[in-house]
């Protein structure tokens, strides 16, 4: 159904913010305007949950997690950035594969199955969106995904 993505995203971030430890800080760079997108709310909640859990899991002590929405023609670009360990360049495309985990030894300590991002990719693509990652080792990671958004639909709402 049609959802005001700005509000929806803000609400999900609020829920995470209540549960995180004090050493992690959240920063929002979200426009105040509304973006109406036609999504399955449960599925996109799962996408955000999987991405944000990783950002928290791989964040260092005192790390900042940034949340953004950027508008592009016919789509919004949603991104979540952390200041964690990062991902080596040649592993970057593989993190969306099922059961793939960078550095198995390190990953084992943190727990998980390597499915979170594969599920996120499947769900984003089912919404005609794209998902990708940018990362610098030792600096941090940003996960981006897009959702189609129609300006015309918007006009009917206002
Ligand atoms: P699961 O999500 O199933 O609990 P997981 O977190 O290991 O397990 P994914 O979420 O699919 O699996 O992520 C795959 C791998 O990509 C991770 O094991 C980790 O190596 C790497 N990765 C994902 N997000 C980040 C991040 N924000 N910073 C650093 N590495 C990451
Ligand atoms: Mg995960």
Automatic annotation (TrEMBL):
<protein>
    <recommendedName>
        <fullName>histidine kinase</fullName>
    </recommendedName>
</protein>
<feature type="domain" description="Histidine kinase">
    <location>
        <begin position="1"/>
        <end position="151"/>
    </location>
</feature>
């Amino acid at each position: 159904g049609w959802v005001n993505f700005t509000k929806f995203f803000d609400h999900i971030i609020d829920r995470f913010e209540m549960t995180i430890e004090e050493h992690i800080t959240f920063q929002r760079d979200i426009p105040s305007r509304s973006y109406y997108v036609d999504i399955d709310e449960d599925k996109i909640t799962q996408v955000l949950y999987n991405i944000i859990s990783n950002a928290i899991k791989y964040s260092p002590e005192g790390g900042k997690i940034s949340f953004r929405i950027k508008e592009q023609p016919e789509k919004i670009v949603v991104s979540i950035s952390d200041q964690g360990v990062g991902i080596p360049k040649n592993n970057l495309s593989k993190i969306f594969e099922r059961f793939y985990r960078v550095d198995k030894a390190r990953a084992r300590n943190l727990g998980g199955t390597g499915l979170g991002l594969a599920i996120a990719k499947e769900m984003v693509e089912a919404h005609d969106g794209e998902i990708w990652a940018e990362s610098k080792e030792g600096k941090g990671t940003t996960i981006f995904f897009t959702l189609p958004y129609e300006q015309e639909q918007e006009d009917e709402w206002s």
